[in-house]
Structure to design on (1011 residues):
């Protein structure tokens, strides 16, 4: 039974995969592997994509580590095209026989697949902006160091949370290191390594009425401060005890950067040229045409992707190997660019902008090249100080689309929702459900706060906006 | 003491005698285990040998308990739009995950390097992770006893969907699209198939050795109609199932697509809903997801105990001593069953990823909360309250590279005693809305406040359906909502829905789960308008 075949030690090159946490595939190793796979290929065109990953995680709850893991895996995908027919097959089994099977299956599926008139030829050699997203300290973050960081979060949260009793501390720390390589039968070869680390923690008070949360993410583990995150989450937990209910309705809100990061990336699909051109996009005009070049948000809003931005440091190519460059989506409130898949760009005589993760012609595929919303100079505290009456939101939860076209979504506030009166936080509030659109929201902007890194490859400001639409109360803490 | 090959053989051989051998794969367990350590490539026993290698290495590294799970996942996806195929993909993922318990703390490591060296390194890493975790431990993990088992199980199917020629699959989808495009105003159609075959072998230091093969199919269909500056989409609620290709064929997609697409057109002229309190009739095609979110998740014991506090959230069904046998979830006729045995369901299994045999039990009995979903680690936390000393067998991982943890079984609303039909419920309703299929859904992190939508909404006046509505969502508080249920359908109205993609945990994992239910009526539920002009 071929399906159950296992390569023996002799077949797997020890130098590549011998130890538990191997060095990620180097450029040379990736090139050798893609060359080999391409040499097996017989289709008109072939693309080989390699993802070589290590991930180390530590999860904690109730002040102790509950699960922790270390995972290594390398996956190879073969995309075969024969006369406008294309299919992709991926596998993580790498002996020569398995690689041949993977190529053969991709070619067989491609021959069987009906013609796709929208298929674009594979790309030839490209040049990419050099981006250094790989930090060794993150790739080296082992179980002991992660346990130690966890301990710092728990201890500090315990101290800061003391006024509320013995707080319940939960959270998650993950470090990732990965290499991506893409090669095509037309001579393209792209290679990139990156790391990221993310630490988040939730602190709950023993009476069950208070909950606080804090999170940080970066390419460089050294940029995260576990004790500071424990402090913030515990402070919020203590301050959010015994929340009071206020009537749902339209309120001025101060959204912390993490709350903004929950909403602004949802605009991804709105910038898709094809949906706009076909009359079903957010920025389609009634009766035809699009709103490109028109003011669609407050004039202080600028949103862009740029893999080389030092705060983003994203992979400088997309899943087809297309170079990614700086793309400004909204500049001073004006819709500056749409995202174009290669097919749609050719059809419309535009430059392609790169596809988001995993095909679909860039349709709603997120933001390859990272995402940054420009900020102002004030801290979140200063935004609060400038608020007559409003609500401070820590972050949001369970966001789901209600209307794709207006980007209207529903969700809830969570882990620290506070009433602001005369520039000061005066009360903890019960959580709300809300129905709101980031598009509407960025038209109701009152003030921009400082932008900060909310995750690796993402920078968002805190903001104050008016008339945020809270629709009902939630009893959840 | 490290596990001894001969001892392991003895344990499993004894278990084999109880379970009646391994007829399904032809090889008795004894000969598989007694084979040379590294079998010739191609031999099935190699998988078992690798698992045993990992267990031995974990034992050597200090584990008091370990399990090794080898998985081979084959997935195929086909997506189409209108008259073209937008994607054909096939993936295979193969590897081993080993979980080690050292001094009462867990460590887990996974590798795709399927050699002796690779799995031994993973086992050592799992023990290292466990030792590091032990430095931040409050109470050591204790496992509920589970008898050593051995055997094989496979989803009963007539035709393996991964063996069906790709042309046949594409032809079926394109025929459905073509039928839909015949409907005037229907401009866009998307259809697809997700197919999975998962082969999984689990070995534990308790002597369990089981191999299971799961087959799951998930078809999809959405039509979009354009008219007068508006567009409306309709997604048919096609339940994914733990079934073979014969289930996909039984759906009659090409035959039914025209009628499905016409619903998208009908939505263009539907009346926007008037907000306020309405009596709500939820068809099973909608209600299954409401059960999933408002009963399935809050009755997960790890959520109730705060293990998910940093991500999916906690639960209002807590603490256990205040709710077991006490919390009135709904009316007397409400019975909710947890079940891993149901035919065709996505969460069906013979054993979980701790080797615990599939179970079926009542979560809510006569409207009162009775028991949680549990794993071996969890059952002792509540056994004094429930009188149940076994795990309910809810430990699963979504991949060889993921650690197993508590995942939802099929959680279903049992039919009422009387043979009540959907028409009977409609006829008994003076002013109401009937909602079909899943729309948007969102629920808070303790599972109180939810807002769900649907695909079609029909207004009922004086016991009759009078027209179609749009922009409808129902928003409620879970206990109030379920306690407002006043009518449910009988056995003949039962339908099994489900999802491939139930997310939980950090790092995130995706679980496949089904929910069976009958139509039900809820009194005076808050209806909100989700239209763009609302």
């Amino acid at each position: 039974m071929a399906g159950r075949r296992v390569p023996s030690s002799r077949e797997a090159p020890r130098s590549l995969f011998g130890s538990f946490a191997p060095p990620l595939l180097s450029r040379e190793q990736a090139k050798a592997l893609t060359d080999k796979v391409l040499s097996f290929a017989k289709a008109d065109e072939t693309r080989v994509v390699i993802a070589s990953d290590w991930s180390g995680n530590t999860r904690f709850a109730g002040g102790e580590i509950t699960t922790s893991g270390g995972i290594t895996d390398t996956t190879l995908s073969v995309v075969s095209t024969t006369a406008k027919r294309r299919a992709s097959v991926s596998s993580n089994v790498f002996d020569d026989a398995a690689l041949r099977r993977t190529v053969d299956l991709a070619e067989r599926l491609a021959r069987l697949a009906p013609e796709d008139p929208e298929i674009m030829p594979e790309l030839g050699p490209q040049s990419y902006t050099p981006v250094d997203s790989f930090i060794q300290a993150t790739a080296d973050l082992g179980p002991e160091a992660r346990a130690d960081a966890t301990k710092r979060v728990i201890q500090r949260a315990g101290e800061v949370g003391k006024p509320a009793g013995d707080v319940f501390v939960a959270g998650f720390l993950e470090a990732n290191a990965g290499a991506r390589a893409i090669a095509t039968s037309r001579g393209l070869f792209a290679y990139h390594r990156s790391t990221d680390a993310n630490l988040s923690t939730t602190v709950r008070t023993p009476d069950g009425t208070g909950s606080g949360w804090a999170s940080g993410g970066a390419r460089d583990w050294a940029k995260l401060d576990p004790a500071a995150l424990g402090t913030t989450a515990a402070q919020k937990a203590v301050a959010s005890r015994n929340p009071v209910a206020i009537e749902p309705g339209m309120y001025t809100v101060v959204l912390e950067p993490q709350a903004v990061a929950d909403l602004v990336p949802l605009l991804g699909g709105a910038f898709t040229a094809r949906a706009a051109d076909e009359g079903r996009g957010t920025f389609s005009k009634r009766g035809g045409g699009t709103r490109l070049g028109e003011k669609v948000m407050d004039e202080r809003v600028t949103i862009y992707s740029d893999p080389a931005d030092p705060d983003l440091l994203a992979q400088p190519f997309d899943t087809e190997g297309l170079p990614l460059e700086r793309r400004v989506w909204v500049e001073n409130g004006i819709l500056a660019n749409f995202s174009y898949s290669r097919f749609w760009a050719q059809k419309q005589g535009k430059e392609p902008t790169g596809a988001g993760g995993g095909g679909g012609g860039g349709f709603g595929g997120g933001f390859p090249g990272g995402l940054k919303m420009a900020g102002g100079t004030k801290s979140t505290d200063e935004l609060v100080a400038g608020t007559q009456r409003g609500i401070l939101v820590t972050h949001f939860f369970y966001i789901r689309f209600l209307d794709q076209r207006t980007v209207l979504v529903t969700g809830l506030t969570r882990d620290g929702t506070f009433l602001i009166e005369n520039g000061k936080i005066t009360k903890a509030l019960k959580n709300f459900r809300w129905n709101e659109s980031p598009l509407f929201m960025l038209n109701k902007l009152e003030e921009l706060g400082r932008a900060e890194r909310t995750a690796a490859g993402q920078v968002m400001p805190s903001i104050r906006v008016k008339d945020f639409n809270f629709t009902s109360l939630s009893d959840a803490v | 003491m490290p596990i001894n090959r001969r001892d392991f053989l003895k344990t499993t051989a004894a278990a084999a005698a109880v379970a009646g051998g391994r007829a399904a794969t032809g090889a008795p367990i004894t000969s598989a285990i007694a084979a040379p350590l590294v079998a010739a490539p191609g031999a099935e026993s190699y998988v078992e040998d690798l698992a045993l290698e990992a267990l031995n290495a974990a034992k050597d590294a200090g584990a008091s308990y370990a399990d090794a799970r080898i998985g081979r996942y084959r997935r195929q996806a086909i997506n189409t739009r209108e008259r073209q195929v937008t994607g054909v993909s096939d993936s295979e993922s193969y590897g081993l995950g080993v979980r080690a318990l050292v001094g009462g703390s867990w460590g887990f490591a996974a590798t795709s390097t399927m050699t002796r060296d690779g799995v031994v390194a993973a086992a050592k890493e799992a023990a290292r992770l466990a030792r590091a975790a032990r430095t931040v431990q409050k109470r050591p993990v204790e496992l509920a006893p589970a008898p050593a088992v051995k055997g094989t199980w496979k989803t009963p199917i007539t035709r393996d969907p991964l063996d069906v020629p790709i042309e046949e699959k594409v032809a079926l989808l394109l025929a459905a699209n073509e039928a839909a495009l015949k409907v005037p105003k229907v401009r866009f159609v998307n259809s697809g198939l997700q197919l999975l075959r998962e082969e999984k072998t689990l070995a534990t230091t308790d002597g369990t050795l089981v191999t299971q093969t799961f087959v799951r199919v998930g078809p999809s269909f959405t039509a979009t109609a354009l008219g007068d500056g508006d567009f409306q989409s309709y997604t048919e609620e096609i339940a994914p199932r733990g079934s073979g290709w014969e289930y996909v064929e039984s759906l009659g997609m090409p035959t039914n697509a025209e009628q499905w697409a016409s619903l998208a057109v009908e939505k263009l002229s539907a009346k926007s809903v008037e907000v306020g309190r309405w009596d709500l009739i939820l068809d099973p095609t909608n209600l299954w997801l409401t059960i999933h979110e408002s009963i399935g998740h809050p009755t997960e014991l790890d959520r109730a105990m705060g293990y998910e506090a940093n991500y999916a959230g906690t639960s209002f069904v807590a603490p256990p001593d205040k709710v077991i046998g006490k919390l009135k979830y709904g009316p007397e006729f409400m019975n909710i069953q947890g079940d891993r045995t149901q035919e065709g369901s996505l969460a069906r299994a013979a054993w979980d990823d701790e080797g615990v045999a599939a179970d079926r039990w009542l979560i809510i009995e006569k409207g009162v909360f009775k028991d949680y979903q549990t794993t071996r680690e969890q059952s002792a936390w509540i056994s004094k309250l429930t009188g149940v000393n076994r795990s309910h067998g809810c430990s699963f991982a979504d991949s060889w590279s993921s650690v197993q943890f508590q995942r939802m079984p099929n959680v279903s609303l049992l039919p009422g005693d009387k043979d009540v039909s959907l028409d009977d419920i409609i006829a008994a309703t003076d002013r109401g809305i009937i909602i079909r299929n899943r729309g948007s859904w969102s629920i808070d992190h303790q599972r109180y406040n939810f807002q769900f939508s649907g695909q079609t909404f029909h207004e009922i006046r004086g016991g009759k359906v009078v027209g179609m509505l749009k922009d409808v969502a129902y928003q409620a508080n879970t206990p109030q909502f379920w306690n407002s249920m006043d009518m449910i359908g009988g056995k003949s109205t039962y339908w099994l829905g489900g999802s491939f993609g139930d997310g939980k945990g950090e790092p995130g994992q995706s679980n496949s789960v089904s929910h069976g239910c009958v139509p039900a009526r809820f009194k005076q539920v808050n209806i909100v308008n989700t239209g763009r002009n609302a």
User: Anything to note?
Assistant: The first helix of chain B runs from residue 5 to 19.
